[in-house]
Amino acid sequence: MSIQQAVVVEVKPHTHFLVKNMPVKNCEDNKKPGFKWGDEGKCYTYDPKNETAKKTAKKSAILQGLAIGEFAKVGERGGIKKSNK
User: Fold this and answer.
1) pLDDT at 70
2) How does pLDDT run across 42-59, given as a tens digit for each residue?
3) Distance of alpha carbon 53 from alpha carbon 47, whole angstroms
4) SS3 36
5) What is the CA radius of gyration of the chain?
6) In whole angstroms, what is the distance from residue 73 CA to residue 48 CA?
7) What's the confidence (pLDDT) of residue 39?
């Protein structure tokens, strides 16, 4: 896997997860843009004029993937292990 195919996400200080083939997709709900995890995930919307809200919506979609266990956890010493949900 190349570095371009994976993204490391910090979900809270000192807790990082390696996202492989990140299926975050654009979506729309009530005429507002948003992001969702895969085809069936909840659409997290944001105000298109607010860059911080956009980042928060994308992070929320990524956290949805974390909740269903689709990440590998990056250990404290840089090792990677499968998340235990």
Assistant:
1) 61
2) 999 999 999 999 999 999
3) 7
4) strand
5) 14
6) 31
7) 86
CB 34 within 8 A of CB 57: yes
Instruction: From 26, 64, 63, select the one nearest 46 (Cα to Cα).
Output: 26
Q: What angle do CA 70, 23, 28 make, to 5 degrees?
A: 125
Q: What is the dihedral of CA 24, 29, 34, 40, to 10 degrees?
A: -10
Q: Which two tokens stand for residue 3?
A: 């570095």
Q: Between 49 and 1, name the one with better pLDDT.
A: 49
The model's pTM: 0.63
What pLDDT does residue 82 have? 47
* Helix (H) or strand (E) segment spanning residue 37: strand 32-37
Structure tokens at 83: 């998340």
